[in-house]
Amino acid sequence: MAILTTPKSAVQLAGQGRPLREHVFRIALLSSLVIALGFLALLLVYVVQDGWPRLDSALWENQPSIRRPETAGIQSGIFGTLWIIALTALMALPTGILAAVYLEEYADKTKWYNRLIELNISNLAAVPSIVYGILGLGLIARWMQFGFTVMTGAMTISLLVLPIVIISAREAIKAVPPSIREGSLALGATQWQTIWRQVLPAAVPGMATGSILALSRAIGEAAPFLMLGAATLVRFNPEGVWSSFTVLPIQIYSFISQSREEFHVLAAAAIVILLAILLLMNSVAIWLRNRYQKRW
Amino acid sequence: MSAQHRATATGTGRSLARSRPRYGEQAIKVVLMLAALVSVATTVGIVFALAEPTIEFFSEVSLAQFFGSTEWGPLFKPAHFGVWPIIVATLEITLIAIIVAVPLGLAAAIYLSEYASRRVRKIFKPVLEVLAGVPTVVFGFFALTLVTPLLQDVFPWLGLEPKNALSAGLLVGVMIIPIIASMSEDAMAAVPNGLREGSFALGASKMLTSVRVVVPAAFSGIVAAIILAISRAAGETMIVAIAAGFKSVFTLDPTQEMSTMAAFIAQAGSGDASTGSIAYKTIFAVGSLLFLMTFAMNWFSARMVQKYREVYD
To answer: What are the ABC transmembrane type-1 domain coordinates in residue numbering (chain A) (predicted)?
Structure first.
């Protein structure tokens, strides 16, 4: 950055070079960052070390068990999480992207209802996830009578990640310069043709990154599922959207709640699997962003 | 931006275009708007889901009992409905988290925005994102099985209980560091370089420029970040459920086991409180309170940003 060259000479003009406190300050800042990230490293090492004895094929081939933690697995949790994520992707991503297109391309920001929608989205992004659990319990499971099923879980979690999808998709659409749209409109394309053939293709990498990050939030989420009956021991994989289910984070939570030491090892092993999935998704998202990020 | 360019595009285009109305285009707009309205429906849904059982709850338990007593135990017999213990526990854990996260997060943000080279930033920012993506059950596990035993070994005189507010608060703090760091960094990056250059020209050092010029200029963004982090911390469920436990005692002592509002909701919601029972309705009453608290903080944060934002070109 240009800025970095200017101050150096300014400081040199002052004569004495950098006083000690400048160095101390810089080191204090850097160490804060290192402490925060060192924590992440410590956490990774700790769970891998702790869960190592149980990182075997029985882990994903077997179903959970309260009586035999040494051979218990997490298969129902893995399949439950896959079901939930697939359905969430089907529901939340299209809705979120369409909403983002409306807000960026169509909405007249001077109208009160559009401002209300925007305010509402930023508010929803800060609502605690357990409150979404209450929404799922009171409205979807009980009032709509969907019960404690995969469908209820997926709908609840879709609503939870929707604000994240909308916000990141808006960023991606905003990054497409107006000249692209103007060029398309000038050639006689309608507004939707412009969006569909010019704006959306250009925004796809950004939207993909945001969508992956939103889905990885959904994978790690546990609190809402506690309210949706996923906490009980489920020893079978879901057979459809109306089947009862559990998810990986909830399974981890119930292992942690057991007092026997073997369950803690099992929990650590399950955490390794969960983190591996999330790290993979995160890397894909970051790679996508670096690979396709366009500078206009 | 889009409104303006559309105005010019369709404004000049209309006279040249076919006069037949484009129903397809209109239909698409309606579909898109409906998608945007799902978010409004979500808020309405939350309020609707919370309201009815909450009203029923307060027809059975008076407000005076709810806010006027310090004994909490809706799942026991006889039941007690004094909400203060879980409010105090929530605030205490949030406070511990903020004490951990604000200095670390802000310092990390200043470093990334003012000191780090482009390459360093390119490495650290994704790692910070990974930290932000760690599921909270994992932090809870970490607090319960590593941090608490470690603290018990190093500070035996604290008399830490196996589940306690201290390690839960510490880990909630770690959880919100990325929120504070990345939002504050965005705010600082938006401060124009002219301000920094002016400060350097007046002979200020880099540290002085960061602390006295950049941070104040980005103040509204930083406050918004901290408030969002507070509402995340207050609503955090899994870390506190795992590491701080479910016992509700009216105390400020962070070495003790204590239940927060979110932990209570999780505990009662994952049990088998039957629909219509007073324990079931209590979930919604506490949920309303939590929702209102985070809603108020959000509103306050939005106001702060609006009122104190420095606008630069």
So the answer is: 78-284
- Look at the block and give the residue holding tokens 């504070």: B180
Choose the closest CB to A135 out of B25, B37, B49. B49
Beta bridge mates, B80: B73
What's the pTM value of the predicted model, to 2 decimals? Answer: 0.88
Classify domain A57-292 by CATH architecture. Answer: Orthogonal Bundle (1.10)
Question: In sequence order, what are the beta bridge partners of B81?
Answer: B72
**Residue A61 Cα, gap to closest chain B Cα (Å):** 22
From the list B308, B172, B185, B309, the residue with the least C-alpha distance to B242 is: B172
> How far is residue A228's CA from residue A244's CA, in Å, rounded to a whole number?
10
Q: Which of residues 33-52 of B touch A (CB under 8 A)?
A: 33, 35-40, 42-43, 45-46, 48-50
Task: Count how many residues are written for chain B.
Answer: 313
CB contact under 8 Å between B298 and A37, yes or no, is no
Domain locations in chain A?
Answer: 18-54, 57-292
Nearest residue, CB atoms, A139 vs list B48, B242, B302: B48
Q: Which fold has domain B73-308?
A: MetI-like fold (1.10.3720)
Q: Which residues in chain B (187-216) have CB-CB distances under 8 A to chain A?
A: 193, 196-197, 200-201, 203, 205-207, 209
Cβ-defined contact of A178 to B5 (cutoff 8 Å): yes
Chain A CB contacts of B107 below 8 Å: 28-29, 32-33
B130: Cβ contacts below 8 Å, ≥ 6 apart: A40, A278, A279, A282
Q: Taking the mean position of all CA atoms in its chain, how far away is CA B146?
A: 25
- End-to-end Cα distance, chain A: 19
Query: Would you tell me which residues 245-274 of chain B have a C-beta closer than 8 angstroms to some C-beta of chain A?
Result: 262, 265-266, 269-270
Among the partner-chain residues A4, A98, A226, the one whose CB lies closest to the CB of B32 is: A98
Identify the DSSP state of B158. G
- Token couple for B178: 């990325």
Q: What is the DSSP string of B84-124?
A: HHHHHHHHHHHHHHHHHHHHHHHHHHHIIIII--HHHHHHH
User: Among all residues of chain A, which has the CA nearest to that of B118?
Assistant: A1
Give the whole-angstrom CA distance, residue B135 versus residue B239.
Answer: 10
Indicate the residue type of A227: M
Cis peptide before A201 (omega within 30 of 0): no
pLDDT 10s digit of each residue in chain B, 313 long? 444 444 444 444 455 555 677 888 889 999 999 999 999 999 999 999 999 999 999 998 888 888 888 888 888 778 888 889 999 999 999 999 999 999 999 999 999 999 999 898 888 888 888 898 899 999 999 999 999 999 999 998 888 888 999 999 999 999 999 999 999 998 999 899 999 999 999 989 999 999 999 999 998 889 989 999 999 999 999 999 999 988 888 888 888 999 999 999 998 888 766 777 888 899 999 999 999 999 898 888 888 777 777 666 5
Q: How many CB pairs under 8 A join A and B?
A: 300
d(CA B126, CA B132): 10
